[in-house]
């Protein structure tokens, strides 16, 4: 697939030139592997010098534009592979398993990540006016679309501002506005539009997700969650699974395990304390579910991560 991507880009000179400059700029602004924050709010750069093992993590609403290499994101049983031909959009907070598929020290995986700003999306929608009525949507809050020259041009102009930070405060909002516009008017922009539909199904699910994020350690009562989302329990369950590929309980479980892992890695908590902190009463249940998600019991998996320096 990487060869296919290279061939297609080479056949479109405008993409080839943009990709080459983007790759150079991302490489120059990432000194080491991992996520690099930038002086531009909402813009981050990602670099990896080798393929990775699958790693569950929580993705917040964002746009990911790969400029070199290849990565996959798994949501439930669905796998989304993105490369320089395709960009990834995550329109709601989701627990996703990511894996870098193609990367070497000579040609590292390079990616530009732009946070999605719901207020900016709403502002653009007010200017764009109403779209044609959408069909009943059961689509995921994660999708791939083909990368085009206009979007790449806006992303490139945004990354150029890393060399002139004194101009970023004025010019970055313009580039970010255009990036959001290109996604909204792209082939799958309707999905992002639905997120800002006042009291629409997508916005109601977004409210349910937000409640789960802030109350992940509490016992889950579907009736309370449905009331917060202004939906019936059965409708909430059906739509929540359509958008996220998992039930609210499964979603909460992943949020709990992700936070427990962060507490162990960043704060040095022992497994039992971390499990209790995120809402587990049984250490054995916590260890069992942690192993199912991360592939090893908490103590062993955290030790392996620290040993690898990840």
From TrEMBL:
<dbReference type="Pfam" id="PF12833">
    <property type="entry name" value="HTH_18"/>
</dbReference>
<keyword id="KW-0805">Transcription regulation</keyword>
<feature type="domain" description="HTH araC/xylS-type">
    <location>
        <begin position="206"/>
        <end position="304"/>
    </location>
</feature>
<keyword id="KW-0804">Transcription</keyword>
<dbReference type="InterPro" id="IPR009594">
    <property type="entry name" value="Tscrpt_reg_HTH_AraC_N"/>
</dbReference>
<protein>
    <submittedName>
        <fullName>AraC family transcriptional regulator N-terminal domain-containing protein</fullName>
    </submittedName>
</protein>
<dbReference type="Pfam" id="PF06719">
    <property type="entry name" value="AraC_N"/>
</dbReference>
<dbReference type="InterPro" id="IPR018060">
    <property type="entry name" value="HTH_AraC"/>
</dbReference>
<dbReference type="InterPro" id="IPR009057">
    <property type="entry name" value="Homeodomain-like_sf"/>
</dbReference>
């Amino acid at each position: 697939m990487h060869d296919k991507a290279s061939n297609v880009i080479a056949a479109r000179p405008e993409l080839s030139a943009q990709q080459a400059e983007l790759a150079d700029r991302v490489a120059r602004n990432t000194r080491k592997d991992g996520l690099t924050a930038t002086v531009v709010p909402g813009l981050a750069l990602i670099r990896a010098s080798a393929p990775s093992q699958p790693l569950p993590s929580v993705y917040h609403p964002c746009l990911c534009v790969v400029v070199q290499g290849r990565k996959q994101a798994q949501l439930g049983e669905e796998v989304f592979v993105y490369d320089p031909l395709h960009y990834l959009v995550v329109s709601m907070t989701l627990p996703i398993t990511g894996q870098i598929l193609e990367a070497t020290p000579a040609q590292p995986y390079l990616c530009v990540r732009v946070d999605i700003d719901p207020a900016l999306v709403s502002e653009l929608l007010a200017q764009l006016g109403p779209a044609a009525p959408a069909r009943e949507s059961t689509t995921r809050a994660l999708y791939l679309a083909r990368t085009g020259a206009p979007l790449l041009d806006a992303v490139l102009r945004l990354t150029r501002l890393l060399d002139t930070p004194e101009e970023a405060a004025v010019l970055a909002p313009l580039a970010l506005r255009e990036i959001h516009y290109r996604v909204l008017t792209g082939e799958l922009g309707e999905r992002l539009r639905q997120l800002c539909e006042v009291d629409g199904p997508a916005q109601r699910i977004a409210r349910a997700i937000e409640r789960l994020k802030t109350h992940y350690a509490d016992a889950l009562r579907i009736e309370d969650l449905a009331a917060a989302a202004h939906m019936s329990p059965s409708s909430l369950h059906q739509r929540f699974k359509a958008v996220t590929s998992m039930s609210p309980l499964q979603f909460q479980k992943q949020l709990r395990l992700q936070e427990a892992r962060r507490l162990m890695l960043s704060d040095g908590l022992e497994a039992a304390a971390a499990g209790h902190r995120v809402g587990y009463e049984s250490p054995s249940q916590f260890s069992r579910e942690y192993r199912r998600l991360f592939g090893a019991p908490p103590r062993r998996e955290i030790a392996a991560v620290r040993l690898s320096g990840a």
